[in-house]
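Appendix C. Worked example: Serine/threonine protein kinase
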Amino acid sequence: MSDQEIDLYYVDSAIGDDTVQHISPGRSIPGSRGIWNIVKFLPGGNGDDVQVQNLLYEPGVVGPPLCRAVKRIVRQKSPARDNSLMIKRSLLCMTRANHSVETETSKASNAIPVVRMLCWYHDAFYVYIAMEYCAIGNLRDWIHDYPFPGETWAREVTKQILSVLVELNCSQLAHRNIKPSNILIASALPIQIKVSDFHNAKWMAEDDGLRTQVGNLDYSAPEVRGERDHAGRVTTEYNTSVDMWSLGIVLHEILSGSHPFGRPGHPRYSESRYQEYLGSDSGQISLSLLEGNTSQYGKTMVAYMLSRDPAARPTPLEALGDQWFLKDIRPV
Ligand SMILES: Nc1ncnc2c1ncn2[C@@H]1O[C@H](COP(=O)(O)OP(=O)(O)OP(=O)(O)O)[C@@H](O)[C@H]1O
Ligand SMILES: [Mg+2]
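Step 2, the predicted output written as structure tokens:
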């Protein structure tokens, strides 16, 4: 792992209760210099959270206040729980994910489909990762507030997430925490999403496989959870197809308002329905919650993504070439 790549984004900072002042000049990227005011906290999982900060002062910057989001990760220092390597890895994955989706045009317009990292800093207790702020919020809250957005909308969002997964795969990155709260809405009309949170991401080239149980159980592929695979074997290794499983769950939630292993209207899964699916002979997921609302192509897409056998799931490129994206959508 190259520390240099991460060091480029590091800024020395004086961190107070309400403000943060960046001391070292940092890079010339807006959002990595000046004095920032902490205006609110967005609660997250695992004791981490996200601060929303407004720019108070930056030499030479005038105009509307700039806003950023800062993920605050608790530093675990005891030898048994030391997470410094994990934090370094997530910083590295975030910088690589940013670079993987950057083109000359997107750089110029500052619009990339991955949340842009601005800088990072730390104190004795936390590591802080500053990134662009998506004021509209996340997909979890959006589909809660505007349920059943329709299949055309679902298709567009899925296409954008798949396009990011294509680039991540090319850079040998697995996100490992695709879920609605990590998909941010950059624009509502037209819908434009940004994939965020590379906290659990892994650069595959560093190792011969992925083994750690990470991410949120509701969205984790069976092989991540150490479940038996389709042939009854317990596997401890997995690959980037775990992101396709998670996307299948997200897509099901967008289309039906419910988790595929949950009860109608509930975005959380039930362990017994999940085990039922893993143990079923057919290997086919019951898509009863999609009945009536979703075209056959849409249902097939969800089932394809939620294949128990990781090798049977489509790659992001294969998924993008699926009939669902090419045909007229008519519910059956
Ligand atoms: N750049 C951002 N702009 C706007 N909201 C954000 C940004 N990054 C995160 N959030 C929101 O802040 C909240 C806390 O995020 P956090 O990542 O800590 O928790 P989470 O997404 O619920 O779980 P996880 O830690 O597994 O990713 C979430 O609602 C998330 O959508
Ligand atoms: Mg998150």
